[in-house]
């Protein structure tokens, strides 16, 4: 790209960003980097002031390690704990080590307990220590208690501050209680009603409390469809329930069904977001990775998947090797064989992706799996016949051999039917045996379609053409 | 699978469902179908009663069309409007036509205006008419007004009921207002403060209102980071902002900056969910589809993508055809060539997926694109060298030819570097020219890696081996 062209695209980027919801425009970004370059702390703080912590985290992820370090040091004590929470795990450790200890301590002390837990659970031990030791005793105990719950559990996800009241309270009593309470949580949407044993009996939205007369008993205002989660329930199930049932908040209970915390929608959204991300990445054979990772980390994430693919590709080659004699007599076979395999791979990936998603959203169950398999086979058959006709014609037109056209057509039908079967069957079987279908299905399915594709095409060719 | 085995997996499914957050277990499902079979309406209603509308929608999606019809007719007037909202678009039309007109009218009348809009915007005209005519005049006008905003805009997404108050109010005035107001929305989380011209000046959470003394002015309790959306803003931007800034609700304003509605987190989550789904499906070359679609619809969704793939596969074959003479002398080339192409395709898909996600989450910007490209090239180079060594050894061991080993190794390095470049370059370019990168990148990138893979491998072989 010439410099002129680059200028134009940068201008376009600025214009685009301006009409955007996103505060971190290209212009703001370059102004910030200029302030860092010139060591202008006042200007830097002025530019960063309107940015949300999530935007500042994005900013730190987008610049290189050198600028990141300079920016953080210049920003100094302004550095907010929320920025750490929003930062990609890949560079959190790095940022924590750059922060001066007193800035780190101050930043962490502002956070709520669930955010501190979320922040430190993936850090290296040294960073964990640095953060834990900066907390006040009570907070440290709370965080350590949360960390005692299994990873990816409701217990890790919840915040410990819950707004609760006894079940016999009226609206007026609830309002008086809240008005006098000190340190209500930042965000809460319900009052949870409990019986004398601390068991939850339901919850009332703040809207209902505000809309009702002072004398009305709270139990008359309980929300329908009240749900609680156990501390040891998986965060996947929690996130699924929030999404499926459009929940805003739900209490978390311990093994004796006593309320110990509350999960709010922002926690659930984070989990959903991470899981979507994970699904996409796993389907593509990319481990957990982000743009901020260094070359070495990225290689480490991707190499294993490529190694698996190499093994499957070699298996396909072994199939081809069985037909060397056939190929040496008809080199046209070598020209056409990748088409059959490629179409099978694509059709298999289509069926597979639909199946993996349907399993994740729990739309594919024992009740409809046979119907879905039947459908995939029929879809494969139909698409197979369509492309068999097309490739038959291409085969005849290109190589002047009706027999070759017939062979590639037949191989296409076989491979697309098998692709449909494998695309649905592999993830379903993996799920049953407890393996994440998104993780391993792709390699299995393309192995099947490669092997079947080459075998059907070259095998049929050996029989028909020789 | 033998019947015994099937029994065991079904039992396992039931057990699994029981410890699950999900109310629609396999056992409940079969009991419901049994009630439908025996025409036992009382039993059916009893079984359906604890289910959330979202679960009933899932149930209707999972059974076949015949059972679906019988179930809906037996369920009769119990059919709730929320079920329609939750139903997959693929079978909404079908269900609406099965419902008796008076049941449909009653079901729709219960819904809030934004849900009606969401419900009917994708229906065929006949169903739209059926629903609109069942609404009361005021509601119909509101729905038609919403439908006048562009599709996928904030105007379509918002609900029109907003809890607002003048900016000079105190906490006490707000509470008194809400207590006397009739028809407060089902779910609301803030009071929006407006100036005399209906312009929004900020909003206060209900929690803050409840926690403050009656005399305190609301303006002192305004939430930081207040944002509004314009009616014509895209729902994608809205959903992005909700996710990025952890928002719960935000007012929507018209072109004169007057408040006309409010968007809540459940609407934003729906959009996010649909877009994630779309990204995954598009990356896999599957159009909008669901498990409930019939064979014909599924074929129609998938065929175009397979056709695109066929064209790209034929292009790769044309490259191979240039080297027919080389292949006929060394059939080993035909055996090994798919390995180079397949590794390139996989590496390209990895880079591509990371890039598409990074663009969607706005982590890949003008600020870091060159750094990311550099990284992908280095990653491709590193992985290429690793697999070049492995394949070199395999080539020598398998075919006893060091020259062949060197050729496949060199081709591997070239193709993996190109794969990294194409994987990041194609989506970035598509995004710049306004095409959804998730939609088209896959086909482009694998075409590049196939063509480069075959060309590099066979071309080098022709030079080195002949």
UniProtKB/TrEMBL annotation, chains A, B:
Q: Which SUPFAM superfamilies match?
A: CBS-domain pair (SSF54631), MgtE membrane domain-like (SSF161093), MgtE N-terminal domain-like (SSF158791)
PROSITE patterns under this entry? CBS (PS51371)
Residue stretches spanning the membrane: 303-323, 329-356, 377-400, 406-430, 442-465
CDD domains linked to this entry? CBS_pair_Mg_transporter (cd04606)
Supply the name of the protein: Magnesium transporter MgtE
**Where is the major localization of this protein?**
membrane
Tagged with keyword Membrane: yes
| Record SMART domains | CBS, MgtE_N
Q: Which domain of life is it from?
A: Bacteria
As for family, the record states: Belongs to the SLC41A transporter family.
Q: Which GO terms describe its molecular function?
A: magnesium ion transmembrane transporter activity; metal ion binding
Keywords tagged on the record: CBS domain, Cell membrane, Magnesium, Membrane, Metal-binding, Transmembrane, Transmembrane helix, Transport
Q: What's its job? A: Acts as a magnesium transporter.
What is its subcellular localisation? Cell membrane; Membrane
Give the organism's phylogenetic lineage. Bacteria, Pseudomonadati, Pseudomonadota, Alphaproteobacteria, Rhodobacterales
Assembly notes: Homodimer.
> InterPro entries recorded for this chain?
CBS_dom (IPR000644), CBS_dom_sf (IPR046342), Mg_transptr_MgtE_intracell_dom (IPR006668), MgtE_N_sf (IPR038076), MgtE_transporter (IPR006669), SLC41_membr_dom (IPR006667), SLC41_membr_dom_sf (IPR036739)
